[in-house]
Amino acid sequence: MSDRRCCASRTCGLRGAREYSDDISTPGQAIAAFVRAPHAHAMVERINAAAARRTPGVIAVLTGGDYVADGPWRASHRAPVNHSK
Question: Considering the domain boundaries, does residue 4 fall inside one?
């Protein structure tokens, strides 16, 4: 005995009809982007985030230094916002 709802839900993803969180857009929505080293196991000596901070619409640029400054159990969720652009 087959369940037609189960089959329909399986093919839903194949047809591109499912809705994912990436498909949802709301006014004022913030989007996170992560930049990784282009080389596996590379030793990152420094990060120059100045250009990223100057980019219009960027709310915050967080690096490993921010994580270390906040401590491993107190990661800050409040990013400093520069409104004087």
Answer: no
